[in-house]
Structures are given as structure tokens and as C-alpha cells.
Amino acid sequence: MSTRADGLPAYAIFAATLAAAGLPIYIHAPKYFVDEYGVSLAALGVILFGLRLLDVVQDPLLGWLSRRLGAWRRGSVAFAGAVMALAMVGLFAVEPPIAPAAWFAITLALLFSAFSYLTITFYAQGVQKAGTMRGGDGHVRLATWRESGALLGVSMAAVLPVALVSLTDAPFAVFAVIFAISVGFAVLAMRGEWRAGGVVEGVGFRPILGDPLARRLLLIALLNATPVAVTSTLFLFFVESRLDAVGWEGPLLLLFFLAAAASAPVWGKIAGLVGAKRALLAGMALAVVSFGFAAFLGTGDTVAFSGICIASGAALGADMTLLPAIFARRMSEIAPEAAEGFGLWSFVTKFTLAFAAVTLLPLLEVSGFEPGTTATASKEALTTLTLMYAVLPCVLKLVAMALLARTPIEHVYAGAAMQET
Length: 421
Prior knowledge:
- By secondary structure, this protein is mostly helical.
- It has helices spanning 3-6, 8-20, 23-37, 41-68, 73-93, 100-131, 138-163, 171-189, 206-209, 212-242, 249-274, 276-294, 302-334, 339-366, 379-405.
- Helix 7 (138-163) packs antiparallel against helix 11 (249-274).
């Protein structure tokens, strides 16, 4: 069956739009509100952490809601898409009508709530879709298209606001409008893919939390995603203040995410040869090596850092393609509806971003770091920034690797089953 007949391009388009509302917002929004409205790093960190505390309850409940609304899935997706688009416009294209910190909290709460519902519903639909596909392991084929689309979406969203600076005086406002239009296009592209598939009579959280392998995979996801959250939160500050490479933020982000997008299908092929577990461990090891080198960089090392962006981006491609596919395969075995499972998955992955915001941004401020400073930054502040950006992710990644190495998933996607990716 062809990929067009399978509808896989629609999954890539929808994933690209969703991804544009995720990681890039953590990269751009805090710095935007610092630069435009003078909101403190500590305040932004507390707000982001508070929003993730909301997710402690919200994401699992949104998984339950996604299952209950299965018969009306197409309509609920359209509604959530509209909320997400309007929230993005409010965040970047509307002058705060109240205190900027409060406006930041309100618009992000709406944005991330809609984002969470759409992500959970989308990934749950993917589990059902993969089970109907022929010609190799459907979970990995779908994951390759979905995550490749997501990485391309991340690439565009990460770079577009920076690229628009030379074209308009309001680059983030223009970005928000472009994003809102893309949401409408993505919803239309996926309109024929939503299926209820036994949603109302789902099995809930008990089979997922009661399954040792599912619990282990959720823990690995938590540990493995935290380094990405750390580096995403600090990327712009590291490039601007540690490397003194003002103006290079956009090209370096593009390099990073394009490397991730290009590597996603390659990791699928590698997993077909050596198994998903070994391939994922190799990707994690590549991340450790690349960020280990970043710890030794300083002012003017932009070219060397571009190589690190390529290597760490390729490592991210393994994380985003293989680990969700492994989890989706396990969900197909113990909870085929998968909405609650990806509610838990969404909470775990987003909690890492909250952890990074609430710990790293205030610590940077305490160390004396001030955004926008380069030559005037203290040695202590720059050392703190380097340790957080480069060394902490290596430690967390090594812990995740140790846990994965002891997890019995060798049978998942091993051998020729993945050759069709």
C-alpha cells in the first residue's frame, strides 16, 4: 500500500503544525517577554512551572476526554485547533491588555491546553492507524512520517521569527498569523483520518500504570527528554552570551532541527538492522558526546558549535522517532485506544520543560546572569550557563541510557520488521 493511500502525508502535515506550537515556544516566548516587556527570568520560570503543575491533572484528564469524545473527534480537533491558533496570536501579536506576566500565563495556558489535547488525540489515532497498515511494521512507518514532519515543523517555527526580523518590525506577530493559517490547513488535511475505534469503552489508566514495561518506558522518556528541555530553554542565551554569536541564533537552530529531521528515517533503517534498543542507545551516546564537547566552547567558537548542532540534532532524531514508536507498540498490546497512555506520555515530556524553566532560569538569575550581556557578563555567570547547558544534559542522558540498557525491549522492532520504514 502506498504512503499516499495510507494517508501518511496528512500525519506529517499535522505533526509539523503541532510541533511548531511546542518546543519553539519554549525557545522564543521567555526571551521575547524578557526583551519586549522586561519580565524577569525568575517570574517566567515560576509561571512555566505552574503551567506544568496544571498538566499533572490536565494531561491525563485530557486523555480520558479524548477517548470519551471519540465519536466527535473531528469536531473536537477543529475546536482545539482554533483555540491553539487564537492563543498563539494573543501571545505574540496582541499587546498585553493586563500585566505582561499575567498575559503570558493566560495565553500559554490556553495554547498548551489545546496543544496537549491535540497531541494526545493525534498520537492515539496513530496507534489505531498503524494497526490497519500493511507492508512492514505500521508503528514505525507512521512514526517516521509523523516525527519527520514534526521535526520539519520545529525547524521552521524555531527559525521563522528570527528570519522575519529583516522583513518586518513585528516578526513574532507575523509568525503567529502564519501559524494560525497553518493550523487551519493541518486540520483540513487530517479531516478524513479521525476514527472513534472503540473510544468510549476504553480501558483507562490502570493497564498502563500497572504494566512494568510501560512504567519503565515513561520513566525513560522523562529522563531522556529532560536534556532536550534544558538545552532548549538555554539555547538562545548560550549562543548570545557564551559564544558571543549574536545573529547566528536562527541559522544554528535551523541546522540543529534540519539535522534531526534528516536523521529520522536513517534511525529507522538502523533500527531495522540492529533493533530499536541498540539504535536508540547509539543516538543517546551521540548526544552525550556532542554536548560534552559543548562544555569546552567559548567566545567565537561558532563554527565548532555548528558541528555540535548537527550531531546533537541527529541524536534528537533518534529520540523523537524510536522512543515514541516503542511506546506506541506497547500501547497497542495493553491499551489499544492509547488516549490515556499518550496523556501520560504528554505529561511526562512536558514536565521536563517545566523542570528546566523553574530551576535553570532562576539559578541563572541568582548567578548574576543578565540576558543580552556578553563582554560584561561575569565569569561565574558564564560558567553557570555552560554547566547547565552542556554538562547537566550529559549527566541526565547517561542515567537514561543506563535505565534503557536494563530494560527488556530487545524483541520490539528487532530485525527485518523495520525494513519497510
